[in-house]
Amino acid sequence: MSNFADEKGYSLVEVIVAMALLLIVFIVSTQIVMNTIAQSEKIDKGFTSTEVADGVLTIYQSKSLDELKSQLNSDVNVDIADLLQVENPSSVEDYTASVKVTYPDSMDLKNHLLKVVVTVESNINRTELEGYVEL
Fold it and tell me: TM segments (predicted)?
């Protein structure tokens, strides 16, 4: 007969403690990964809204002065997919854009420039981009 006291190995308590520690490490690392994924999605949406705003601003800067002056001091809602000629309109359906054309704040520039402010919003963030058009 063998004596259990002479057996080498881990006790049940040691195994349970080791499993509990591994479980804690697993839970913490899972939480870190989930937070990283959420932040990555938020950054990606922010980058896309900046790209949309830049595209809308570029198109407005290439419009004629008569078109821009007809929209002076009014907020104009923009159909992003149509204006940017997006192949897949569902890729921008979460975004709304508006454009406001005004004179610059500086009186010195009022006779030389028009200010174009593009605002793009999604459920996560709001991006505002400002540009100028020479008169």
Answer: 12-34
